[in-house]
Amino acid sequence: MSTSQFASMEELSYLLNTTLFQSRTENYTFKADRILSQGGGYQSLVVTGRMIPMTSITEVETVVVKKRRSFIDGPLDTNQEIKILKDLHGKHPNVVTQIFGCVYANHVFSVLEKVGDEDLFTVANRIGRDSLKYLPGIVDGVLYLHKSASLVHLDLALENVVISSSDQPVIIDFDMSKPIGTLMPAFERGRHGKQGYAAPELYDSANLANVDMDAWSLGFILYALYTSRFPFGDSVPSDSFYVRMCRRGSSSVLCKDALHHCSRGPGYQLFTDCVSSLLSLQDRKTVEDMEATLKSLVLVEREGL
Asked: Mapping DSSP to helix (H, G, I), strand (E, B) and coil, where does residue 38 land?
């Protein structure tokens, strides 16, 4: 029986305990509790479960087990996430912690801390603009990746930020990430990156991974948090809004659209400054450039200054 075919959660737990976990976690047994997602082209399987200690000295750990086929597809490398998270292990509160990871039977296994039950997309749909409170933590996590780890995430999105039990944003999913300066093949639409979130230059040609790419993604996230809608569907000629943005400049088009679709809060001017600087096709600012303005925006919206 393969890890993508099982009749019950008990069979899955048995399979993992007698293969992956047998030599890696001698003091624990694993019990799968719930499937979060499965399927797809990479035979993906994500489950939550518990690492149950063999002795009473340590506590039960609730974890997420992520399994994917070992595979390289253009800029996507399912093996690299465990390598990156091993280096990042527990070094920043806004970046997910990997307990351990390995390649077994042509599949990549990663055991991660269970951060929370909801991603930022779900939370933002429920609380609207109040979800801006998570922006400073996201900025801190991204700047840690850029400045301390010399990494570009390349897949920042509302769905890739999980809200922890302590109400903090935690960045997840690093299988697109690259060290700054890495030469990458062009992304293929529908296969790599998320529509709109991915910087348009990623689809044009081979690129060196750089922090500007994450800046675009953060601008897309900010626009969604402030207005409860996305600025455009995708950075393609078939998207009329994106075409207008290219012709007239991001600042005028984005600001006019935002004012039309949402109420003008006390931080509106700071918001427009941020999105027009981050979602810019020329002279794009980095997250580091905009850190102070982004955090000021959240403070002004919260305090009504």
From this structure: strand
Which residues does 232 contact at the CB level (< 8 Å), separation at least 6? 196, 239, 241, 242, 245
pLDDT beyond 60 at 57: no
Q: In this predicted structure, what is the pLDDT of residue 174? A: 92
Same domain, 164 and 123: yes
The answer to whether the pTM exceeds 0.85 is yes
Token pair 């997250």 in the structure block, residue: 287
221-250 burial: b if 16+ Cβ within 10 Å, else e: bbbbbbbeebbbebbeeebeebebbeeeeb
Please tell me whether residues 97 and 76 are part of one structural domain.
yes
**What would the mean pLDDT of 42-54 be, rounded to a whole number?**
77
Distance CA 78, CA 42 (A): 9
Confidence of residue 12 (pLDDT cuts 50, 70, 90): low
Q: What is the CATH number of the domain that holds 109?
A: 3.30.200.20
The range of the structural domain enclosing residue 32 comes to 9-113
Contact (Cβ atoms closer than 8 angstroms) between residue 84 and residue 112: no
